[in-house]
Amino acid sequence: MTKSISTAQLKNFKNLLEKRNDHRVLERTVTQNGILASSRDYRAEVNTTPVFSIDLDTGKVANQKQSGRCWMFAALNTLRHDLRNRLNLPDDFELSQNFTFFWDKLEKANYFYENILKTAGFPTSDRKVAWLLSMPQQDGGQWDMIMGLIEKYGVVPKSAMPETHNSSASREFNSLLNLKLRKDAVLLRKLVQNKATEAQIETEKEKMLAEVYRMAAYSFGEPPATFDFEYRDKDNNYHLDRNLTPKEFFDKYLGWETKDYISVINGPTDDKPFNHMYTVDMLGNVVGGREVRHLNVDMDTFKKLAIKQLESGESVWFGCDVGKSSDRKQGIMDTELYHRDQLFDVDLAMSKAERLDYGESLMTHAMVLTGVDLVDGQPKKWKVENSWGDKVGTKGFFVMTDDWMDEYCYQIVINKNFLPDELKEVLKEEPKVLAPWDPMGSLA
Predict the structure, then answer these.
(1) 111 with 286: CB under 8 angstroms?
(2) Cα-Cα-Cα-Cα dihedral sign, residues 272, 310, 289, 186
(3) Across residues 427-443, what is the average pLDDT?
(4) How far, in Å, CA of 417 to CA of 415, rounded?
(5) pLDDT at position 260
């Protein structure tokens, strides 16, 4: 039986409030200053001083501006850190995020079309079909998705394909592309339902992809087939390498074994036992390319792997729920930054697993770990390279407490050589397939 709020209950609620001696003071404070300012603890600034026992020099931060390309920026930043050190490149050198963005949009369109064709026999009210149509594509992604793009297309310096208005402010393009993809889904589903031949369907899909290519070319510029790599290093020495393809550039100047870098997650929910492999249904971009795969481990192992990679001099791509208990302007990520529970005298405590299971948290942003402060061998705080420009934090770098990492970090990317032997064996497992809406499938 449903029950509405009664008059007697309302009277009781009011009486309980008025019995509190501090309720008028707190009412004035919160109404005038807001919840976060009223619950902020200045001690968090003392505990997040930007000094670290391991601190990698990674140059200047990048700026994704009004786009959701953090996963792409973070991945390209880890690549450029290595390249910058080896070639003595200027601090502001970047790899082109616009180049990978172009190919990601085209590949995501094809990925969407393929999933629409696979589910064409189900009604639009089916949960998977509704999931596809709710967001045909977006800017976000995962580590394996950017690696899939690099393995297929290579990379170029930013000078070879600089930013455009639409790459830096992607909302208009995304709105238009999602309109087109939904409209195309209508036709593709009808073709299947009307028993069109495979050749007929493929012909229509190719026309659709050609239109997406044209839209992307007008918006981002067309990616270069070849380019010249020309630069002056920090010592002002001039360098020129002519007529490189994007894949030749990657192989010659970066040369990473991309398959050596694997996603390690901490998803402590009952449906994901630790020390096993997972993938996510309908999550990806390059059809037939790299599969999204996650190795789930406990938090202690998670942090030890990150520290090992930092100690080797290599930065760490990571994904987190950046909006929780953080201050964007000052660049602080600390579970003790705000005390909203104390302000309102309500119990807000949830475990990490409960937040994931009940929709309170998931991965929303990717950045790069570039340092850690170890005290007696234990991490106390972490240095974070963000991609929001140098006007926030300490010239664009944030400080994350170790407790914050425990609660809101979900993914790191580690060279598999740092894994203990027993986890290397786990990598050979056939991954368990998670539902498309699983929080471990969220896009940063």
Answers:
(1) yes
(2) positive
(3) 96
(4) 5
(5) 97
- H runs (alpha helix) in 198-339: 198-220, 246-249, 299-311
Residue type, 240: L
CB 283 within 8 A of CB 438: no
What DSSP character marks residue 278? E
270 and 251 in contact (C-beta within 8 Å)?
Answer: no
DSSP element (H, E) containing 370:
strand 365-375
pLDDT confidence of 242, banded at 50, 70, 90? very high
- Which 3 state secondary structure label does DSSP give 435? coil
- Tokens linked to 137: 């594509």
Where do we find the tokens 């309980």?
A: 16
pLDDT score of 1: 76
Encoded tokens for 356 = 């994931």
Q: Write the CB contacts of 340 (distance below 8 Å, at least 6 apart in sequence).
A: 35, 36, 39, 348
| Number of Cβ within a 10 Å radius of residue 293 | 17
Reduce the DSSP state of residue 185 to 3 states and report it: helix
Quote the pLDDT of residue 196: 97
**Strands 276-280 and 432-434, how do they pair?**
parallel
| Catalytic positions | 70, 365, 386
Residue 319: what pLDDT?
Answer: 98
Q: Return the amino acid letter for 286.
A: V
Is residue 369 within a helix (H) or strand (E), and if so which, with residue range? strand 365-375
Query: For residue 131, what pLDDT is reported?
Result: 97
Contact 163, 94 (CB under 8 A): no
Determine the pLDDT at residue 51.
96
